[in-house]
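re the bet — no i am not wrong, look at it urself. input seq straight from the record:
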Amino acid sequence: MKTTEPMHLLIKYFSEITIKSRPVRLRQCRQLENNMRRMLAEWKNDIHLSCQWEHLALTVHRAEIEPQIIARLQQTPGIANFAVVHEYPLRDFADIGDKTLAIYRDHLRNKHFAVRCRRSGQHSFSSVQVEAAVGKILLDNSEAAGVNLSAPQVKVLLEVRENRLIIVRKFYKGLDGFPLGTMGEVLSLVSGGFDSTLASYNMIRRGLITHFCLFNIGGQEHKTAVHGICHSLWRKYAASHRAYFLSVPFDSVLADIMQHIAPPFQGIVLKRTMLRCAERLATLLGIPALVSGESIGQVSSQTLSNLTTIDRATLMPIFRPLVACHKKEIIAAVRDMGLYDAVAKVPEYCSVTSIHPAVHSQVEKIARHEKKLNATLLEDVVKNTIIRYINDPALPEQRPTIEEIAAPIAGSTIIDVRPPAEIKKCLQAVGTTKVLSIPFYLLHNQIHALKPDQTYLLYCEHGFMSRLQAEHLLAHGFNNIKIYRPSHS
């Protein structure tokens, strides 16, 4: 049921939109209008939206949906700020004061205030005269503590536009940025961590339709967690446009790298191989650029030398919006987005980063190492990549439940899946428990030597790669599989 007092909002464009040429500004304003219609589509019968040169005007006819509308506007790229307003015909100063008093009286009680007036059009008075006249009426007819022009507790905001008076009831900050879809499309390489999450957000906020690409070397648990974060990011800030979520089965490529590339260069080669794969997938989808969350010097693979070597793997542009950001700034920004808890729960990689990594690399030397790799694997993973829309409910598959135990089971066999270069201390047999050392990248080739009825406990430093390998064994008919997580690891 519609209320007799609808909520009126004036929505101001991002400042960089307003300095564009007239054709560009019109196009971006129309894009923002279209995006808002999509974002507010579920309430289309309860709102009225119109696009004007200076602002968008939105009227909401149902009081119960007002908080949801406001939340959506705060999360829409392209909006600098917006205000809930009351609009009246312009009369004299006394009328302006009376109408302002009716709206602000309760807010001024025991507070210091200041009146701020913006004026456009031809008038016989100035903005300062409006502020002085209205300020006196408010001071004389309310319980305000007084006027404070330099640091008011309450700002009374007015606009006089030609023959109309606009009184701002409440003011909200927007997301800024360009309207989504005005700047093209990018494919963001995501891991579910703080860096890639914020990098993707920054591209969305800059008006780029951002698709998500996960190189899945962590199994279904990691895939589900990363998909959830990307979906939250898309749903909150970018749902006006469809976006892809790509899940690339990359464990075979990782195994090939771990087996044939010297440990100091594994991280660099891994990132170069990811870029080559991402370039092919982006080209397939008609996406012209990639996004990565690297920050200069944050880890060993992100030195200037290594980033240069990594970039040489592809001719496609790679945007790094966080390249000069500090980690604490990145984490704080993700916290402000409301995604900190979800991102913090994403399991960390193990058996993925280089041991004693090289910090100064040369393209020619890395290229020689890469000749040892199986060139056909990249074609296979591109062919087997799952490409679906981010909001496809069929994407997150039900992952198997795998028990984690802290102590060995009598008669079981522990399989240590860490690569040799990562083993600082070997596992010891306990009682009748045996220990096999089979690096994760060799486990597939040795499945035939394992006994389907035997209980196997898979171990790695953080439980991440061991879970992935446990899922593979379950898929091959091994039912007695558990994750070994001793209390000291």
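see?? The longest strand covers residues 164-176. told u. also The chain is about 35% helix and 20% strand. so pay up
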